[in-house]
Design brief:
six-stranded parallel beta sheet, 1 helix, 153 residues, elongated
C-alpha cells in the first residue's frame, strides 16, 4: 500500500496543478487581436497620451511622455513611451525603461534604461544605460553606466 501511494500521490498532485493552471492572454495593441484564452480575463486597452504634469509625483505604471513643468519633482518607476520635455527647475528621476527622446532644461537622472536621444541644456546624471545620441554638455556618468554599449566610469 505504501509503495503504491508513492506513485499515485505525485500523479494526483500533477493532475491538480494542471487543473488550476493560470490563463494566458496577449493583446496586439495596434490591431486589437487577442491570442490565447482571453475569455476569463478582462482586457483593457488604454492609449498613452502625452500630457503636461507638475508638482511632486511618483509614477509606478506607464507614462506617455509630455512636458514636465517647472518646479516639479517627478519619479518614474514604470515604463515611459513618448517624448519628454523637462522645463527649468524641474527634477525627473527615471528608474524604469523608456523609449523617448528627451529635451532637458532641468535636472534629469536616469538609473534605468533609455532608448532615444537626449538634448541637454542643464544637468543629466546617468547611472543606467542609454542607447542614443547625447547632445549638449553637463553629463555626469555614475560607475556602471553604459552609453551605446560602451561602459562609462
Amino acid at each position: 500500500m505504501k509503495k503504491t501511494l508513492t506513485y499515485i500521490l505525485p500523479l494526483f498532485f500533477l493532475f491538480l496543478t494542471s487543473c488550476f493552471e493560470p490563463t494566458s492572454c496577449a493583446v496586439n495593441t495596434s490591431t486589437g487581436e487577442t491570442v490565447g484564452d482571453c475569455a476569463r480575463v478582462k482586457v483593457v486597452q488604454k492609449k498613452l497620451e502625452a500630457k503636461s504634469i507638475g508638482g511632486s509625483k511618483t509614477i509606478y505604471d506607464m507614462f506617455g511622455g509630455g512636458v514636465i513643468r517647472s518646479n516639479s519633482s517627478i519619479t518614474i518607476y514604470g515604463m515611459t513611451v513618448g517624448d519628454i520635455k523637462i522645463e527649468e527647475n524641474a527634477k525627473v528621476i527615471m528608474w524604469g525603461a523608456a523609449e523617448s527622446n528627451i529635451e532637458n532644461y532641468g535636472d534629469l537622472r536616469i538609473y534605468g534604461s533609455l532608448t532615444g536621444d537626449i538634448i541637454n541644456y542643464n544637468k543629466v546624471t546617468i547611472g543606467g544605460s542609454v542607447d542614443g545620441k547625447l547632445y549638449g554638455e553637463g553629463y555626469k556618468y555614475n560607475p556602471g553606466s553604459v552609453i551605446n554599449g560602451e561602459a562609462k566610469n
